[in-house]
C-alpha cells in the first residue's frame, strides 16, 4: 500500500477514518467495550483511565452518531443506561490490533522501555 | 485480539500509539511522505489538503521528536529544508492500510456514499 504512498483517493478514506476516530479517547473507549458485554458509564470510565466524565459523555455521543456503539435505556427505577459496541465498531478490530503492535514497538524504540 | 477486549496491558500500547499519532493530521502527513522521496514544506502542505502552515509546522516538529520523520537542512542559498519518512515512520504501513480499508467501509455504511 505504502508503495502507492500519497495517492489522493487513499488519503480520502484515511481522512474519513481519522475524522470518525479523532482524539485519543474514542479507540480506547471502543477497546474497553470490545469484549462485547454491555457496560455502564461508570464501568467505561473506570476502564479508560484518566478520562473525565464530561469528555466521556461527549465521546459516547459522537461514537453513537457514527454507529460505533449503541446506547440503551432500561425502564427501571432509577433508569439504567448501557452501552454496547456495534458490529461496525467491532470492525475496527484490525485497526486496534495494528495500533497495539505498533505501540509496543514505539515504546521500545522511542520511549526506551 | 478483540476477544481479549479491554485488557489493560493492550490498552497501554494502544494509548502509546494514539499519543504519538494524536490528531487528524500526523498520519496524513506520514502518508504524504510514504512514497519515500524527501519533500519540502510546500509540497507536504499541498498534499495534505486543508492544513494550515502553523499546524503543519507544529506537527512536523512532533513527528521529528517521535523519530517518525527526519528533517534535513541543505547549505544552499537560500537554505533548503527537506523532510523524509524514517523506517520507524514506514513501520506504520499496516496501521495506515487498516485505516484505509476501514475508512472505505465507514464511508459506505455511515456517510452513505
UniProtKB/TrEMBL annotation, chains A, B:
Q: Which domain of life is it from?
A: Bacteria
InterPro entries given in the database record? ArsR-like_HTH, HTH_HxlR, WH-like_DNA-bd_sf, WH_DNA-bd_sf
Recorded hits in CDD domains, A to Z, give:
HTH_ARSR (cd00090)
One example of a Gene Ontology biological process annotation = regulation of DNA-templated transcription
Q: Which Pfam families match?
A: HxlR (PF01638)
Keywords attached to this Swiss-Prot or TrEMBL record, sorted alphabetically, are: DNA-binding, Transcription, Transcription regulation
Q: Where is the HTH hxlR-type domain?
A: 7-111
Gene Ontology MF, one? DNA binding
Q: What is this protein called?
A: Helix-turn-helix transcriptional regulator
Amino acid at each position: 500500500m505504502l508503495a502507492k504512498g500519497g495517492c489522493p483517493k487513499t488519503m480520502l478514506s484515511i481522512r474519513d477514518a481519522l475524522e470518525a476516530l479523532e482524539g485519543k479517547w474514542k479507540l480506547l473507549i471502543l477497546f474497553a467495550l470490545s469484549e462485547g458485554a454491555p457496560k455502564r458509564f461508570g464501568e467505561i470510565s473506570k476502564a479508560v483511565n484518566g478520562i473525565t466524565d464530561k469528555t466521556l459523555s461527549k465521546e459516547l455521543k459522537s461514537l453513537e452518531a457514527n454507529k460505533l456503539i449503541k446506547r440503551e435505556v432500561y425502564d427501571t427505577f432509577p433508569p439504567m443506561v448501557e452501552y454496547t459496541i456495534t458490529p461496525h465498531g467491532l470492525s475496527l478490530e484490525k485497526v486496534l490490533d495494528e495500533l497495539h503492535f505498533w505501540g509496543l514497538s514505539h515504546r521500545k524504540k522511542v520511549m526506551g522501555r
